[in-house]
Amino acid sequence: MEEKVENVSRLFSKNIVKQLIHRIQEDDLPGLAAQLAYYFLLSLFPLLIFLFTLLPYLPVPQDNILGAIGQYAPEEAMALIEKNLDSVMAKRNGGLLSIGIIGTIWSASNGINALVRAFNKAYNVKESRSLIVARGTAILLTFGMITVFIVALALPVFGKAIGLFLFTQLGLGEEFHAIWAAIRWAVSALILFGIFTVLYWVAPNVKMKCKSAVPGAIFATLGWTVVSLLFSFYVNNFGNYSATYGSIGAFIILMIWLFLSGLIIILGGEVNAFYAEKAKENC
Fold first, then answer.
1. Surface-to-core class of residue 183, CB atoms within 10 Å of its CB (0-12 exposed, 13-18 middle, 19+ buried)
2. Could you state, in order of their start, the residue ranges of all structural domains in the chain?
3. Residue 276 half-sphere exposure, CB side, CA atoms within 13 Å?
4. pLDDT digits (tens, 9 = 90+) for 128-159
5. CA distance 12 to 31
6. How far is CA 62 from the centre of its chain?
């Protein structure tokens, strides 16, 4: 137990902070994060359109999809997303599902490819896998992330129903709602941690054990949650982008949030690369 506590404390040591600052400058992380924000934007709407088109076949209410994003995204960004989704879904047709699949997989796999390049840069390795293997890996990761996202949306539906039934039988129906709010945050964090762990383990062109991806996954899960909530709080209470930028204010907020998300994810890869480098030095 003491060893685990020591390992976690080392994750946030002064040495790694200095190294991360150095790597941010050396690997041009802001530039890579800007690229990711662009790809995230291109894949966000196809993914949401695809999920909304699947709703008739899934036991997931529409509010759950937007609610999963709304937990972290600023209000103005969410308003922009909902407005565009409503516009597209109002004109949907029978071919939208197949188009959504193609658009989602292609756009999202481009985003994964951008992450692969960023992670390879963190490890100072070149992409030696063939184009087909690299793209296939990106597509498989995309399928995996979509599946996990759908499961994550469905779990609260069944979990809340089962939990409410059990607590009601025990005469604790009212207490359940408070407990459920905490459980949802814990489940969201675990799902994020799982996604980041697999991403950091599979995406880089480096042979590594799954446990080697854990430090970066912890950093990304905590970092993305905290940064998203803080940015959302700032925009909702202090930042008036609409007054400064007019009608494009919401779009700018969305892009900044996607940029910050990309930066945190890349930093998680840098954390893993740092520990991999240290492990080699100690061998």
1. middle
2. 12-282
3. 25
4. 888 888 878 887 887 777 776 666 666 555 55
5. 24
6. 20
Closest CA to 257 of 222, 221, 233: 233
Position 68, amino acid: A
* Nearest to 265, CA basis, from 206, 209, 213, 221: 221
Cβ atoms 24, 30 nearer than 8 A: yes
191 half-sphere exposure, CB direction, 13 A CA radius:
20
Alpha helices in the chain (DSSP H): 2-11, 14-26, 29-54, 62-70, 75-89, 96-123, 131-169, 173-202, 214-237, 241-245, 249-282
Widest CA span of the chain, in angstroms?
60
Gap between the Cα atoms of 97 and 103, Å rounded: 10
In this prediction, residue 214 carries a pLDDT of 93
Model confidence pTM above 0.90: no
Q: What is the pLDDT of residue 263?
A: 92
Find how far residue 266's CA is from the centre of its chain: 11
pLDDT tens digit sequence for 61-102: 666 666 667 767 777 777 877 777 776 666 655 555 555 566
- Of residues 32 and 106, more confidence is placed in 32
Per-residue buried b or exposed e for 8-28, using 16+ beta carbons within 10 Å of the residue's own CB = eeebeeeebeebeeebbeebe
Cβ(224)–Cβ(265) under 8 Å? Answer: yes
Residue 163: exposure state from Cβ atoms within 10 A (0-12, 13-18, ≥19): middle
Q: Identify the burial level of 226 via C-beta atoms within 10 angstroms of its C-beta, where 0-12 means exposed, 13-18 middle and 19 or more buried.
A: exposed
CA-based nearest residue to 28, from 228, 205, 222, 262: 262
